[in-house]
Amino acid sequence: RKRTAVLISGRGSNMTALIEAASDPDYPAEIVGVISDKANAPGLGMAAARGVPAQAIARSDYPDKQAHDEAIDTALGALGAEIIVLAGYMRILGRSFVEKWQGRIINIHPALLPSYKGLDTHKRALADGVRIHGCTVHFVTPAMDDGPIIAQAAVPVLVGDSEDDLTARVLKAEHRLYPVALKLVAEGKARMEAGRTAFSGFTEDSDKSE
Ligand code: GAR
User: Fold this and answer.
1) Which of 21, 95, 119, 209 is most buried per CB count within 10 Å?
2) What is the pLDDT of residue 208?
């Protein structure tokens, strides 16, 4: 099982979905630790309650972004992490950190990339009147919300949806999608190669192999 660390900033509902998926001994990733850049992130308590080591590495305790990234990298080394999962980690990681971990670091974004990079995705989708929205898991590259796509889930935008309605519908899809995407990466069935996602080892009931 691939040793996997989760980086969070807040609630940690995606983190919890991943911890639950990984509680199955047949799941190919094991969640070995959770790191938050916010000391008061509710997700830290959720992880600890599930027996997963959780720690805060607060940005305010470091003189600059580089030193903060390095502290996180050191903690990941101590955990023996092989894969990093960003789950509501609301800070942009620096280029040297991302390049070191490239191909082994993934993120979930609450939109169908490449549409709606950045923040307030649900509000912007509603304002545009799109009828389909969703979420994306992708490899992290130095450019924000820009890395190769691993998996996506679409949800309908329903007439009369509020931002909260749409947020909740997408979040439910995120909780299903992220464990599927991490499984692909942990099994080596989705790999980052030359700036693209290379897929292999699919059977006919997942995706066509021919
Ligand atoms: C999720 O919707 C995630 O997609 C989003 O933050 C939420 C975190 O919720 N991430 C981003 O916006 C990244 N820029 P959670 O803490 O309950 O998983």
Assistant:
1) 21
2) 61
Backbone angles phi, psi at 179, to 5 degrees: -60, -35
Is 0.80 topped by the overall pTM?
yes
pLDDT for 120 equals: 98
Any ligand 1 atom below 6 A from CB of 52: no
- Nearest partner of 159 among 131, 133, 135, 134, judged by Cα: 131
| 206: amino acid identity, one letter | S
Whether pLDDT at 204 is above 60:
no
Burial class of 63 by CB neighbour count within 10 A (0 to 12, 13 to 18, 19+): exposed
Q: How far apart are the C-alpha atoms of 170 and 122, rounded to whole Å?
A: 9
- Per-residue model confidence (pLDDT) at position 202: 74
Q: Which of 171, 172, 175, 178 to mutate to test the pocket of ligand 1 (most atoms within 8 A of CB)?
A: 171
Strands 2-8, 83-86: pairing is parallel
Using the mean position of ligand 1's atoms as its centre, give its distance from the Cα of residue 199 in Å: 25
Distance 184 CA to ligand 1 centre (A): 20
Across the range 184-203, mean pLDDT stands at: 94
